[in-house]
Amino acid sequence: MKIIVVTFTNNNLPALNQTLSFIQHQTRQPNLVMLVSNSDKKIFQREQQICKNNGYLCVKNSRTDNQSGGLNTAIEEVVNLEGITNDTYFIFLNQNEEWLPKYLQEVEQQNTQNFDLLITIKKYKNSPLKNTAVSSKSQPIINKIFASPLALMFHVCIRFTTLLQAGGFDEALPLLFHADLLISILQLHPSYTIINSSLVILPLNSSFLNEIENKTSQEKSLTTFYYKHHFRMNTLDKEAFFLYAKTTCSLEKEKFPNFDKTNNFTTKEIKFHNKGNYQFIIGFIAGNAAIAERISRQITQRKIPVDLVLIIDNTLSPNDLKKCEELFKTHPINYKIIKANEWRKQLQNGFYGTSFQKFSKISSIPLGRTILQKHLYSETALMPNPIFWIIDDDVSFTTTMLELPTHNGVNFFDIVNKHKNNADVIIGAISCDPPVPTLCCIRTQLVDFVYSYQAK
Description:
Layout: E1 2-9, H1 13-24, E2 32-37, H2 41-54, E3 57-60, H3 67-82, E4 88-93, E5 98-99, H4 103-110, E6 117-124, H5 138-147, E7 154-159, H6 160-165, H7 177-186, E8 192-202, H8 208-211, H9 215-229, H10 235-249, E9 265-269, E10 279-286, H11 289-301, E11 308-313, H12 322-330, E12 335-338, H13 340-348, H14 365-379, E13 386-390, E14 398-402, H15 412-419, H16 438-455
């Protein structure tokens, strides 16, 4: 059994030194100790030295700026350093916890069947109350999590492969990530055992609420947690959860989404009525001939009152946008296509900035947008009052929204007319899929899909 201990710190050297002392006094030493830091540069340098002196690994949090982001950073580091093996176990040591010296030894001794999960019951320090033994069945454990998710009294040692199968830690949760992960793992029907010995101690006044006093973080975590797991809760679970939220965070039941209602979503076409006294310019980068033709056809068929359509041609052939040109000539609509040979030549001579001269093609979103915005400016310099709509070439002029009796859809120019005199930039949302590469968001999309599917 290979044990990896991970702890997280954020500008708190005294707490870090105490936390590391609990590891140093273990009768069974971990195989790897990793500190993930969210600290400032100077403190991080001191943390690195402390870890170096003790033979521990110190890494900077490279993900979301919270503990769950730090723990996922640790998971990535473990994969890079150790690979993925069935005998590796992952334990997180929180800075408000005290490990008794025989904790890791007991975990290893109790792991008689190479369990996926070993659960230890925490105890409050100097508490007159005796520990209550917990059933080895998963449902009572889940019931207890729902009843007090912020004060989770379970400490877990997780087989690393099981942790990966569960998807790691949810970075949308500033708090509650332990409870959320434990529920996710239990859905995998893991093999596990309960260690009822009091080997993990909390201060008597300890609470996850004390770690982050930001009320917004507490409310966000509780509402997100409920959104994800409400369908697993029976009536008693929900009553216990709402009571807990009210007593600990003053968060009323009405603050949580009501899933008893049926929400109907509808897709409506965006309207383009009541254009104001300005020149309306649409600009986009065309990377595919068929997609560029589709959006050009939408512009013409919807009779959008556009004064200029400017396209950066990033297709494979010089004639790929011929059908777009024919559409604009037929209706007619003013257009300008910056051909690939033109922008490539200007790229080399520094027209878009000297830092981009080393590139020979549009290899990133910032470079493509820089080229597009430069030409939008130069082509409209003589216009008295231009307003630009920069879009991706794969969008559709529709909007997906909650169907309400009072909602008549979206009129694009109503939004522009309302804000044009008091805003330099108007940023709109994208319905359905985000306009980013799939690999950048596939994990979040899969997690959202799983929980949405299960909730139905």
